[in-house]
Amino acid sequence: MNVVLRAAAAYWILLFVIRLLGRRTSSQLAPFDLVVLFLVAGTTISGVLGDERSLTAAVSAMVTFGLMHRLVAWLKARFPTFGRIVDGTPVILYEGGAFQEQRMRRLNIQTEDVMYAARQRGLRELAQVHYAIAERDGRISIIVKE
Q1: Under CATH, what is the fold of the domain 91-144?
Q2: pLDDT given at position 25
Q3: At what angle do helices 31-49 and 55-78 cross, to 10 degrees?
Q4: What is the pTM for the complete model shown?
């Protein structure tokens, strides 16, 4: 039972830590992002399992993680405010021909990230971009000028 409680606590702590890391981690994985995620995951599993090395403890932890994930999904569907806290909201990064520097700093997104998203859409110049939006899942959407 101790493993289940630690796994539930670890899920919520990990969810909080991932939110602190920002949206970039969830979609545009740079090498340093991967290192952080692996270190956090390794540390989390050590804390959850502790000295327990049994298959039962590992399965209990995984099932608890799955149940916590289902609980968060249910809470997001039931309470939109909870969903905004957990997933965030779309944020405009580029509009009116200018980068929104303060918003970008807050999200740890650089101009190069926006340019990369524009190139992925086949755009050659920033002048072709009407809006760049950081989506809830971390992707950057590009709205092209007409």
Answers
A1: CRO Repressor (3.30.240)
A2: 44
A3: 120
A4: 0.68
Question: What residues does each domain of the chain span?
Answer: 2-87, 91-144
Can you read off the two tokens belonging to residue 72? 């968060």
Q: Where are the alpha helices (DSSP H) in 22-128?
A: 24-27, 31-49, 55-78, 80-87, 101-107, 111-120
The predicted model gives 105-109 an average pLDDT of 89
Q: Contacts from 67-71 at CB under 8 Å and sequence distance 24+? A: 68/7, 68/8, 68/11, 68/12, 69/11
Q: What is the DSSP letter of 138?
A: S
* pLDDT class of 17 with cuts at 50, 70, 90: confident
User: Comparing C-alpha atoms, which of 143, 8, 118, 24 is closest to residue 71?
Assistant: 8
Order the strands of the 91-95 sheet from edge to edge.
Answer: 98-99, 91-95, 129-134, 140-144
* CA angle (36 as vertex; 11, 80 as ends), nearest 5: 40
pLDDT mean over 36-60: 81
For residue 101, the tally of other CB atoms under 10 A from its CB is 10
